[in-house]
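Researcher: Structure for this, please.
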Amino acid sequence: MKVQFFKPFDELSGREEMDLNLKEPRKVKEVLGMIEKEVPSFQQFLRKDKDEVLNFFVVLVRGGEILKLNDTVQNGDTVKVLPPISGG
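Model: Predicted structure, C-alpha cell format:
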C-alpha cells in the first residue's frame, strides 16, 4: 500500500511517500498505528485512550473517498495523508 504525505506531513516525515506491506486488508486505525511506528513524529497528531484512536488531526483519502477509522484498506490502495480542511 502506498501512503502519500502532503504538507505539513511530508515535512514531519521527511518524505513525500512510503510503502506499507499489508499481507491482508487492515482497518484504517491499524494503518495509522503502522505509520506512527515508521514515522514517530506522526504520533502528535493522534490522540489515544488505551489502544483506541479517539481523534486524529489528519484526513486519510483513497481516491475521492475520505476514510473512517473502521474502513478497510488493502495492499494495492494509495492513501493520501492530508490536514483537515475547514471553510468559512
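Researcher: Any notable elements?
Model: The helical segments are 9-13, 28-38. Residues 28-38 form the longest helix (11 residues).
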